[in-house]
Design goal:
Shape: elongated
Helix content: 40-55%
Distance between the termini: 4 Å
Radius of gyration: 24 Å
Structural class: mainly alpha
Number of strands: 7
Largest sheet: 3 strands, antiparallel
Number of helices: 7
Order of helices and strands: EEHHEEEEHHHHHE
Number of domains: 2
Length: 194
């Protein structure tokens, strides 16, 4: 299957349930290419134009639990901020030797992440920070310039990577059963290069 930069092609064999993509070769589990190939019906035509095989992607549909979906959408921001505060609460403050006291690093990671999630400008986001402080999610309400400064700090990168890893741990068991990306229609069944 071509990757997003169209440089790579992978070979799927449905008989042996194998794929040449790095995801399948490293983890040894069913990858998105195998799932896509299973949902594809293939036919071709010969040189005379007679229909020998045709490729058709079968679109899988799933029923929707609208009550649960609506509840999740209505509570998303509250759940996000609660989970984010829980992730950030154990971030230690770096040692400080001089100058004025820094803002708590846990609060600044929370504020920076929440600011990006909110899609607000730094100034418009200030009211969200006041609400977060009133709710006990952070201990101080930082100035919008402080949030912007932390967002541009390279020191935040390893902390954010650690939070991403930690937040994904509950889904570790699920990733062996489901593909993490959408299926691409150019993936073909056994014996064909994609």
């Amino acid at each position: 299957m071509p990757s997003s930069d169209r440089e790579w092609q992978y070979f799927v064999d449905l008989t042996t349930q194998t794929c040449t993509c790095p995801d399948h070769e490293i983890r040894g589990v069913k990858c998105k290419h195998i799932f896509a190939a299973e949902s594809t019906i293939s036919r071709m035509t010969d040189k005379k134009g007679n229909l020998v095989r045709e490729t058709k992607t079968v679109r899988l549909t799933y029923s929707q639990n609208w009550t649960a979906y609506n509840a999740a959408q209505c509570e998303e921001q509250t759940q996000f901020t609660n989970l984010l505060a829980d992730l950030c609460k154990d971030i230690p403050n770096p040692e400080q030797t001089n100058s004025r006291p820094r803002l708590p690093l846990a609060d600044m990671v929370f504020a920076s992440t929440y600011k990006v999630y909110s899609l607000f400008s730094a100034r418009r986001f200030t009211s969200e920070l006041h609400t977060a402080k009133e709710s006990g999610l952070i201990s101080v309400t930082p100035h919008f310039n402080s949030v912007s400064n932390y967002l541009s700090s390279p020191e935040l990168t390893p902390i954010l990577k650690r939070l991403i890893t930690t937040s994904g741990l509950p889904l570790k068991a699920v990733e062996t059963d489901f593909a993490t990306e959408g299926l691409h229609p150019s993936v073909h069944p056994a014996g064909t290069n994609t």
